[in-house]
Fold Hypoxanthine phosphoribosyltransferase.
Amino acid sequence: MRAAEIQNELTEVLVTEEQILAKLDEVAAQVALDYAGKNLLLVGVLKGAIMVMADFSRALPTVVPMDWMAVSSYGAGTKSSGVVQIRKDLDEDLHDRDVLIIEDIIDSGLTLSWLLENFESRGAKSVEVFALLRKPDAAKVQVDCKYVGFDIPNEFVVGYGLDYAERYRNLRDVAILAPHVYS
Ligand code: 5GP
Ligand code: MG
Ligand code: MG
């Protein structure tokens, strides 16, 4: 992906890779304290959380198990449908685990509130959330997100794992996608 090619597809860089990595160090230090002596399991929500999981897990000072779940609530568009589908289920048994869900972004919060309920019903001892990004609409639904990286404006963003139609995930920064790309 050449710079010139993507430049007119993005309007503004919201969070740089450098800012993200510094924040992940900060959150990892807090999580290490909060989960000392606990049965921590990181659960990444595919595919958007791949970069957060990769960098966050390596910022932790100890070896930690991780698992993945793939759900879909957006399809190819830019607005949540509210219908959550399991595309790939967990491999791990959640019984007595202290689960920390790793998410790229909370927008409507529909996906997360569904996941929280689902994981609790599987016998997890505790379920908390770390979302790298949070949009203002997330305040409208009751999702208890213990760790948040950055509050961002209500724009459709891509990069650092976040896609539009499977593109842009490998951008290092988080940027606003130009509306002409999707409208
Ligand atoms: P929610 O259920 O909270 O509305 O969002 C569910 C999922 O939609 C997020 O985990 C993320 O994968 C995707 N999503 C929400 N907002 C954005 C955005 O601004 N950009 C991209 N690329 N995906 C988003
Ligand atoms: Mg996600
Ligand atoms: Mg997506």
